Amino acid sequence: MTTFDRETLRALADDGNERALDRLADLADARDDVPELSDLLDEGCLHAGELLTRRAAAARDLPELQRIADAGYDEAGEVLDRLLSSAD
């Protein structure tokens, strides 16, 4: 897999390239940079939402799942509902 520098990806993402946003999310995930992932989700990067949801579900972090869902990644709400349902 070819990797690109963050600055190049950021410039492409700023110009509206969604694939570049996804690659930025992958880089942030590899660095365990949760704040950057959150920023990318706020920019509309659904891949960042997916990565954040995976982390929050593994940690069973219900408030974080709610925050991710509120930020626009609907699958986080579904994961939250499943976790709450399994608590019965």
Keywords:
88 residues; mainly alpha; 0% strand
Description:
With 88 residues, this protein is mainly α. Helices cover 76% and strands 0% of the residues. The chain has six helices and no strands. Helix 2 (18-30) packs antiparallel against helix 3 and helix 3 (34-42) crosses helix 4 (46-59).
Please identify the structural class as seen in this structure.
Answer: mainly alpha
Multimerization state: single chain
Unreliable sequence segments: none
Residue fraction in strands: under 5%
Q: How many DSSP helices? A: 6
Topology (elements, then pairings):
Elements: H1 6-14, H2 18-30, H3 34-42, H4 46-59, H5 62-70, H6 74-86
Helix pairs in contact: 1-2, 2-3, 2-4, 3-4, 4-5, 4-6, 5-6
What does this entry show, briefly?
With 88 residues, the protein is mainly α. It has 6 helices and no strands. It has helices at 6-14, 18-30, 34-42, 46-59, 62-70, 74-86.
